[in-house]
Amino acid sequence: MITIVDYGVGNLRAFVNLYKRLNIPTKIAQNKSDLENAQKLLLPGVGHYDFAMKQLNESGMKDTLDELVLRKKIPVLGVCVGMQMMAKSSEEGKLEGLGWLDAVVKKIDETKINQITKLPHMGWNCVEVNQKTKLFESLENNPEFYFLHSYYFSCNDFSNSIGTTEYGGNFTSAVNHNNIYGIQFHPEKSHRNGEVLLCNFAKI
Fold it and tell me: How far apart are CA 22 and CA 16, in angstroms?
């Protein structure tokens, strides 16, 4: 069972439909009581960092999520802004992040991008997997995923980085520390590779 955190930000229906095709049950959590007995958590996110953090803070679920992730070690997967919220802070806003990982979120340096269209980083790109992890099992080398973002996750402890992507330089596009996983790309828009990755997370 995958519990998808609904705090008013993120394309929840796409995840529900994808997991339905994979015959993997899901549950939507809109309050802390919905999080009871969660076995795995998916934290989606799109848009502005501060707005997402404000929505999560006001949902009443933040403290329960901290308890589940940090004390009970429930596996969690953050997607796009959901991953960025796991950091301590972001250059996109002023609010504190969840602080689940020793990292900050920074804006991509446009001066280092060769493409005519610079930001956002939008479209298909490769992820170079630099650590063996269950999240990327059964995927080819350097699998492609769909990206849409202008900010990236900067790990203070690079051992947490399990995948990198090149766009005006290499940036961390996938992280893992113990039960905490994060991906900058959108698996729900990444066809077969996204399905494989989300199925892998369900097995963790």
Answer: 10
Q: Active-site residues: which are they?
A: 80, 186, 188
Name the residue ranges covered by the structural domains of the chain: 2-203
Structure token digits, residue 65:
């999520």
Instruction: Quote the radius of gyration of the chain (alpha carbons, Å).
Output: 16
pLDDT at res. 111: 81
94 pLDDT band (50/70/90 cuts)?
very high
Q: How many helices (H) and strands (E) does the chain have?
A: 5, 13
pLDDT tens column, 50-61? 999 999 999 999
Computed over every residue of the chain, the mean pLDDT equals 94
The CA distance from 43 to 3, in Å, is: 9
The third-level CATH classification (topology) of the domain covering 2-203 is Rossmann fold (3.40.50)
Residues in the chain: 204
Nearest to 145 by CA among 159, 133, 129: 129
